[in-house]
Amino acid sequence: MASSDLEDLCFHINMKISTIKKTLQLRNIGQEPSLKSMLCKIGHEMVLLHDLLNKMETEVQQQEKLKDLLKELQKSAERDQNEAQHLRENIPPHLPKPTQSCITGPPVKCEEQTKVVEPERAKKPTKEPRLIKEAPLITAEEFESVPAYMKGRLTYDQINAVVQEVNKAVVGKYKILHQPLKSMNAAVRNLYHRFLEEETKDTKECKNILA
């Protein structure tokens, strides 16, 4: 056997003997009443330390995940920045270019120009025409869902013709009601006043026609 192997074997045996001695010493210490309370306290602190290490390990893992997310966000921001820079440097020629009136000249001239130009008069906003809601025509599916004993009274085309006539009457009435009085002739004005007299508090919130 080589001398190096013998030395390694002696070192290993000595380490085992040292471990056994420490174990026996700890056993003897545990049997002493004066040291039991201290050993219990050390054991409790070891348990707390173990829990603390577990919490720290969990926190480290969460921080590593957050670091990876931040790296991905940084890469995404860099890609967006590079794309924006590329778009800025490669603007399509068909896009409108900024006017050169206030870019080439000194700032003082621009202020003078703005002072000389008279402000445009504000245009009166055009009134949007009021929408008059019309009743929708019935569909073929709706007509087919009508009970059979009622289908013989009116045909599909007859029902939609009636709906169109009702819509025509409603649109005609409320076009008159929405007109300014100054633009009406005598006949239309008479209809306007008649429509107003026919209105009640129950019909003001809905579109209606009277025979």
Describe the structure.
It is a single chain. This protein has about 210 residues and is mainly α. Helices cover about 65% and strands about 0% of the residues. It has 7 helices and no strands. It has helices at about 5-30, 35-90, 105-115, 140-145, 150, 155-180, 185-200. The chain starts with a helix and ends in a 13-residue tail after the last helix. The model has no long low-confidence stretch (mean pLDDT about 80).
Low-confidence stretches: none
What portion of residues belong to β-strands? under 5%
Helix/strand/pairing class, anyone?
Answer: mainly alpha
In round numbers, the mean pLDDT is 78
Number of helical segments with 4 or more residues: 7
Which sequence of SSEs, written as H and E, runs from N to C?
HHHHHHH
Radius of gyration: 47 Å
**Main sheet?**
none
**Overall form:** elongated
Features of this protein?
211 residues; elongated; mainly alpha; 0% strand
Topology:
Blueprint: H1 3-31, H2 33-89, H3 107-116, H4 140-144, H5 148-151, H6 156-178, H7 186-198
What is this structure, in a nutshell?
This protein has seven helices and no strands.
